[in-house]
Fold this sequence. Notes:
By secondary structure, the protein is mostly beta strands. The protein contains four helices and twelve strands; from the N terminus they run ββαβββαβαββββββα.
Amino acid sequence: MTSQRLTVARLGKPHGLRGEIALELRTDIPDERLADGTVFETVPASAGPLTIEYTRTAGDRWYAAFVEIPDRTAAENARGIELVVDAEDSDEEDAWYPHELVGLRAELADGTVVGTVKGLEHLPAHDMLVVLETGGERTLVPFVHAIVPTVDVAGGRVVLTPPGGLLASDVANLEVVPPTPGSSDDRASDEER
C-alpha cells in the first residue's frame, strides 16, 4: 500500500460574520474526519495548517469554524482551500480514492481501449471519471455502476459500457429521443406558442 494526499473537504462560501465556512465534502465519513481539534494540512500549503474549532450541520450541508479563521473577511479569503490528509490506498471492495483511478486504462467490455483515466470530478449529481480518449478528446463519464461496471485497480483498467454517443469516439451513434406527444416538453412548446 502507498500513501497519498486525500482531499477531505474544500472550503466554500463564508456563512455568517464569525468565520464559519460551508464545506464541500469529499469524504464519506465526515463525522470521523472533521472532529473538533483536527489539524489539516492544506492545498495550497501556505494557507495552513488549519484547526477545526467546531463543525455543525444544517440539513445535508456541513459548516466549520477554524481557529485560524476568526471572521468573515478571513473566511472569504479562505474560499477554495482544500483540507488534505495522508491516506492509504482503499482496501474496500467497492471504494477507490481518486489517486487510485488516475492512469487506469479505460476500455470497453470487448477489450477495446478507449483512453486513460486522468482524474475524478465531483459534481452535484454524482462523480465523473475524466477520460482522455485515444484521439485526444477529454470526456466526462458518469462514475456509476451501469456505465462503469468494473474497476480493476490491480489490473490497471476500468471497463466502460457507455450509452451510444457518450464517448467522443462514438458520437456517430448518439441517440436523441424526441419528446412524445403529451410529454411535459411538448406542453412547454405549446404554451410558448
